[in-house]
User: What shape does this take?
Amino acid sequence: MKAKLDSTDRKILELLQANSNITNAQLAQEIGLSPAPTLERVKKLETQGVIQSYHAVVDMASIGLGVSTFVMVSLKGHNKENIEKFTQAIAHIPEVVECHHVTGQADFILKVVAPDIPAYQNLLLEKVTNIEVVDNMQTTIILSTFKDTHVIPLP
Assistant: This one.
């Protein structure tokens, strides 16, 4: 169900997307409300599922993850059972940081991170290709990223 957002809710979402560490007092000052009603609005947005989580964005290279790829995966059959088997198996592979069910040439697009090419190759051979319902895969290595934002434009 679509949440009804007023201009204050939108401003709260913009500010929290820009800095999820902002204090309630700072947030209240920015939107022109006192802290109590500001906190109430944030809690309401969380309860409605508009705000799903708060987290830090980590620089992958600084922690030794030098390879990022997109992997297009086709299943042996596009049916509910195979989709469930695949998504359950993928959920247990931490290097798969995104998994999208898509239309087009593939059934899924995965974003996979690894320290280097040998580790990535091992991950594919030992984990992803061993998922019994995987038919075929095509990898695209990300050379550089020019835009990677988690800021959602608010309508």
About this structure: The chain has two domains: 7-47, 61-141. The chain is about 35% helix and 20% strand.
